[in-house]
Amino acid sequence: MKLYYSPAACSLAVHIALREIGASFDPVAVDLARHTTADGGDYFAVSPRGYVPVLELDDGSRHSEAAALLQYVADLDPDGALIGAPRSARRVAVVEWLTFVSTELHKVFSPWLWHKETAASTQQAAKQKLAARFAELDALLATRDYLAGEYSVADAYAFTIVRWADYLAVPLAPYPHLKAYLARVAERPAVLEAMRVEGLLR
């Protein structure tokens, strides 16, 4: 397999998940500003949408969308520890949180807060929505260590997206349990290795 990623982008979640299950894969860095791969190749030839992540399977097929890829990767582990068995309460809880992160966090941060041309009123509305969601997460994480109880691919995704707050000057100080959660996830060996490979460790 190949994982096309850009440092600190949402592809980091899939990168983490692949390392959590001990998968064999080649990480391929992508420059999203130029839409080129590390060897200078045209990334649009890999992904017509031009964004990451893309997971290329051994059969040559390529697939995108972080939430879908996280489910696929979790299912590569026979034990299903990162997602749960089909039709189980654990499974629906993890998929519920994957969907929440995708729609309520990921697509609020991006594109609205990443583009300087976004109107100030739109940016303010996005930040207000994030504040409400962060408060919800903070209350939940006061009662448990991870979103769906035990650590899952939903946590890899939430960790990746909530960390964008640091890049975009969105304050996390009002959410001590959420900050502690980020620190807890950051201590996992697979997370540390993925971040090391992506050049994200200070």
Structure description:
The chain is α+β, with helices and mostly antiparallel strands and 202 residues long. It has two domains: 2-79 and 190-197, 3-Layer(aba) Sandwich (Glutaredoxin); 89-187, Glutathione S-transferase Yfyf (Class Pi), Chain A, domain 2 (Up-down Bundle). The chain is built from eight helices and five strands. It has a five-stranded mixed β-sheet with strand order 3-2-1-4-5, covered by helices on one side. Strand 1, helix 1 and strand 2 form a beta-alpha-beta unit. Helix 1 runs antiparallel to helix 5 (153-162). The longest helix has 22 residues, at 120-141. The protein starts with a strand and ends in a 5-residue tail after the last helix. The model has no long low-confidence stretch (mean pLDDT 96).
